Amino acid sequence: IVSAQAPTMQETQADVVVVGSGIGGLTAAVRAQKAGSRVIVIEKAFEPGGTTAHSEGSVWTAERYEDMRSDAPAGSPEVQRAVFDALPEAFKFYEALDAPLGAARGTSTRSRSIPPVAWVNFMVGAFERAKGSLLVETAMLQLLTNRQYEVIGVLAEGPKGLVRILAKAVVIATGGWAGS
């Protein structure tokens, strides 16, 4: 007789769990730490950085919100507005961290270059120095909710099996804002 054992389930807690370790996820993670939160970042790939690490290396939006809408009409207007409005503050945040960020391109106030791999490495270093926990090769399987359907964390699968991460907040930073 062969008995099947239930898979092992690890459980951990954080104030914030961030799903994705590209520019959005790492920025959210470090900002949450700066606000005093204990943060866990999960990344399904074997290394952090998401598509940011393989990008052309610029952080930008259109010069006018209307142009952004025209370029990506299927995107969420609310998300696009949030990105458009927040970009100048994001540049200030990166400058305050001393993150690798190039000068404005030409006369644009909405475009800055970044060295993608160096930027990711810098942000991961800042995150880990502030006692953040980065779990690579760990894919989110589902959001966890309570009986009132409030999100209370995530269920993920990593190299050591299933992990339940209970958190006060979950940030989904898996990319694709323009076409959401």
Topology (elements, then pairings):
Layout: E1 9-19, H1 23-34, E2 39-42, E3 58-60, H2 65-71, H3 77-97, E4 111-113, H4 116-129, E5 133-135, E6 139-145, E7 151-158, E8 161-172
Parallel strand pairs: 1-2, 1-8, 2-5
Antiparallel strand pairs: 3-4, 6-7, 7-8
3D architecture notes:
30% of the residues lie in helices and 28% in strands. The chain is of the alpha/beta class and 180 residues long. The strands form 2 sheets. It has a 6-stranded mixed β-sheet with strand order 5-2-1-8-7-6, with helices on one face. A two-stranded antiparallel ribbon has the order 3-4.
Briefly summarize what is shown.
By secondary structure, the protein is α/β, with parallel strands linked by helices. Helix content is 30%, strand content 28%. The chain contains four helices and eight strands; from the N terminus they run E-H-E-E-H-H-E-H-E-E-E-E.
Total DSSP E strands: 8
Termini distance?
50 Å
Low-confidence stretches: none
* Cα radius of gyration in angstroms: 18 Å
- Percent of residues in beta strands: 25-35%
Mean pLDDT comes to 92
Major sheet, described briefly? 6 strands, mixed
- Tally of separate helices: 4
Tell me the structural class: alpha/beta
The general outline is globular
Work out the helicity level: 25-40%
User: What is the H-and-E element order?
Assistant: EHEEHHEHEEEE
